[in-house]
Amino acid sequence: MAEKGDAPAARVVLQQCLQARLQVKPAGDQSEAQFVQIDRGMVIYICFFKGATDDMMPKMVSALLNLRLCESDSGKLVSVLELPGSLLIVPQATLGGKAKGRAMQYHNNISKEDGLRLYGAFVSLCEEELRAGPSAQSGAEVTVKHGTYGNRQVLKLDTNGPYTHLMEF
Amino acid sequence: MAEKGDAPAARVVLQQCLQARLQVKPAGDQSEAQFVQIDRGMVIYICFFKGATDDMMPKMVSALLNLRLCESDSGKLVSVLELPGSLLIVPQATLGGKAKGRAMQYHNNISKEDGLRLYGAFVSLCEEELRAGPSAQSGAEVTVKHGTYGNRQVLKLDTNGPYTHLMEF
Q: Which PANTHER family does UniProt cross-reference here (chains A, B) (predicted)?
């Protein structure tokens, strides 16, 4: 977690879900919209700031996926890797907003090119960690789904308690 | 917005919605669960820290409700008061969490009694502002709904883009 006073390089909002469904391709003239969906697990909304680096990604992914934020059937708090839970990763540049008067400004957000690269790396590492995690290894059907960077994130969320958490790195 | 380095007294996550539905009373032995619902508008997840005061509430509510975060039908960014939009307020103590190792700690969260009082004041002020705002005054059907402090927040969210924002005060 970024220390108080340090400007963060990444901001993440986490919500628990029973089911979540995200549009990954809007409808076109000749095509229907496309969606991805997870069942029980965690939605990760992520935003990178200027200064975010590839080097941060492994530590960040490990921290997020190993935090005990998820309520197991027995009521115990476990990580999403242990739940077993799936992941829905949602790029969310708006999280970098800072209010100036009545408007939001996004001056500290990373450039689109760097953000796209870091987002890809983040998603890949989440896939690796989930695949190597205890739930996947014991045969649970867990998966990583993710939104398309730069798109509008059309989302349906169904939760028994979002237990919304903020993490900065 | 709290300045960098100041510990915030309140943390708020905002999401835009087409529809949102929240349980306000769980099912009992003899009774069904009760829900509240809004259509287009904004979901406000709110958490108070130690040091939050009644004096902060008017400025906070005014800032949140007047921020231009909502996409109007014409694509212009307007406030939820102008949209016209409704509000769903969700108490969310987990937002105060700070990671220590793999566990989340909530040591800076306000006491339950103070939190309950501030939450009530926050909801009342939101109702007042919405009622006095341009949409309600011109006859739009906008409303404030809110969750029960201390309950599990069973939620369904449907959004065309949550445009998740973080605000600290």
A: D-AMINOACYL-TRNA DEACYLASE 2 (PTHR10472:SF1), D-TYROSYL-TRNA TYR DEACYLASE (PTHR10472)
